[in-house]
Amino acid sequence: MIKSIYIAPAAPYSGKSVLTLGLVNMILGKTAKVAYFKPVILAPPAEQLDTHIQTVLSHFQLAQRYDECWVFTRNQALQYLHDNLQGLMLDAIIHRYKELENNYDFVIVEGSDFAGGGSAFEFSMNELIARNLGSPAILLVSGEGKSIEEMAQEALNFYQAYQDKDIRVLCVLVNKVSAELIPQLNEVLAKLLPDSLLKAVVPKDHALENPTVGDILRRYQRIGVQRDRQ
């Protein structure tokens, strides 16, 4: 039985926060005891509160404190890796995750944000954490400004990278896709990726460029209804 999902983006601006909110809303429709976990955040709370944590906790009124939702800042995580203390870092993240897992029915884990020129760090960090938590992953690819071939190849590469690390992948989701490209992209993904893997293509929606939480939830509720009918 799945008790957690790890949301892993391939790159910045993939729509991770939108997907996270939609997923929290969906899981809350099945169980009230849902926890949100973002192991690595950009800055310490004394300097800057993480807007994703704030939004999820306040909008959904989850029974969590802010400090239960994260473990390390990005700089702290980088320092642990630099000092070859990866094991200690993972132990702390796993300990916090297990506390949430023991007290809630489901844990939604949001991967780290991409910041500055550190895309390789974020990609590796998300792989590392997802593998050690044992959480199945949703892989999120942005289709904005990309051709069908580029989107399909990125989705395949991303999937294979997680497979190579023995991480279970539940879904590969390509977000922000031009509407006219969706039918052909669906066909290409069906040929490239395993039949057993859930594949989803989400059209670009200009209304979600500066969305309210309500806009996001309505959007993903519509997507859920459409997928249920398929």
Q: Quote the average pLDDT.
A: 88
- Total number of helices: 8
Order of helices and strands: EHEEHEHHEHEHEHEH
* CATH-defined superfamily: P-loop containing nucleotide triphosphate hydrolases
Number of structural domains:
1
Helix-strand category: alpha/beta
How many angstroms does the end-to-end distance come to? 24 Å
Tally of DSSP β-strands: 8
Measured by DSSP, the beta-strand proportion falls in 15-25%
Corresponding CATH architecture: 3-Layer(aba) Sandwich
Over the alpha carbons, how many angstroms does the gyration radius reach?
A: 17 Å
CATH names the topology as: Rossmann fold
* Order of adjacent strands in the largest pleated sheet: 2-5-1-6-7-8
Question: What characteristic shape results from the CA principal axes?
Answer: globular
Describe it for me?
The protein is of the alpha/beta class. The protein has a single domain (4-229), classed as P-loop containing nucleotide triphosphate hydrolases (Rossmann fold). The protein has eight helices and eight strands. The chain has helices spanning 16-28, 51-60, 74-82, 86-103, 119-133, 148-164, 182-192, 213-229; strands at residues 4-9, 34-37, 40-41, 72-73, 106-110, 137-142, 169-177, 198-203. The strands form two sheets. A six-stranded parallel beta sheet has the order 2-5-1-6-7-8, sandwiched between helices. Helix 7 links the parallel strand 7 and strand 8. Helix 1 (16-28) packs across helix 8 (213-229). Residues 222-230 have low confidence and may be disordered.
